[in-house]
Specification:
Layout lengths: L14 H9 L4 H8 L6 H12 L18 E2 L5 E4 L8 H4 L7 H12 L20 E4 L13 H18 L3 E5 L1 H13 L16 E4 L8 E6 L4 H4 L6 H17 L8
Parallel strand pairs: 2-3, 2-4, 4-6
Antiparallel strand pairs: 1-3, 5-6
Helix pairs in contact: 1-6, 5-9, 6-7
Length: 263
């Protein structure tokens, strides 16, 4: 329970206050700061804080972030990479998306191979990593139990992704997995992008180009299997497969959607 004057008093605490807080953010830095104070989903708040209070043995003695995790990378990126949610002992521990776990190891190694990251590893917020032309984020900002946010939690968190897409204005969105795919399509439809009906199903390698009335540039969605251990350890997603998607995203970002798929 918080007392009068607590920092939690002004934090978003339900869906409507999340929407107001996100809409009020004038730039990406303000959005990132607002995200980290959110307390709108009681189940997620309880879980992320309980995990932070009971670290794994391997991380005992480390101070966990234990808060919502903002996006990370270039605030004017041509390529936005969208996952699912922070991992309990990864981003929920380090405070940076895809940082501190095997999924992040796989993703950042690929970003480095294609020239979008300054180094192949991401282990902590102060490790010196820089991203160039790319930003990584998620439709749900708190670590969920069993890596499974509820539909209501995704909807409550949705305004953060909505505002991030509007502020970053990427040309390409690389979506890791079906959960993120549905979340991004729903958000883009709300923003007025001409999302086909029925909505395009998720598949690795799927490419969908969207347009919006009054917008000079197209927006391209690229589907990619999630970088989860379930996919990478079994070979469902290999480094060459991920590299190919990222290189395709780079090509589209450079040309505005006119790149040859074979480039």
């Amino acid at each position: 329970m918080t007392g009068r004057g607590s920092p939690h008093d002004a934090a978003p605490h339900d869906a409507s206050s999340v929407a107001r807080a996100a809409a009020a953010c004038g730039d990406v830095a303000a959005l990132d700061a607002a995200v980290t104070g959110c307390r709108a989903c009681p189940r997620l708040v309880a879980w992320r804080e309980d995990v932070a209070a009971h670290p794994r043995a391997a991380f005992r003695g480390q101070e966990y972030w234990g808060r919502p995790v903002p996006g990370f990378g270039d605030p004017a990126a041509g390529v936005l990479v969208v996952g699912l949610a922070p991992a309990a002992h990864g981003a929920n521990r380090t405070g940076r998306m895809f940082t501190g776990d095997r999924s992040g190891d796989f993703l950042f190694a690929a970003l480095h191979r294609v020239g979008l990251a300054s180094q192949p590893t991401s282990v902590a917020r102060d490790d010196g990593l820089e991203l160039h032309g790319v930003r990584v984020t998620a439709p749900v900002r708190c670590a969920p139990p069993a890596n499974a946010p509820t539909p209501a939690e995704r909807r409550t968190c949705g305004p953060w992704l909505d505002r991030e897409l509007a502020l970053v204005a990427p040309r390409v969105v690389v979506v890791l997995g079906g959960f993120g795919w549905q979340a991004v399509l729903a958000t883009l439809a709300e923003q007025g992008w001409a999302v086909p009906r029925p909505r395009p199903p998720f598949a690795h390698g799927t490419e969908v180009t969207l347009r919006r009335s009054g917008a000079p540039d197209a927006l391209t969605l690229l589907g990619c299997f999630h970088v989860s251990q379930q996919n990478t350890f079994t070979g469902r997603l290999t480094p060459p497969m991920l590299d190919a998607v990222l290189r395709r995203a780079q090509a589209i970002a450079r040309t505005g959607g006119d790149a040859d798929p074979e480039e």
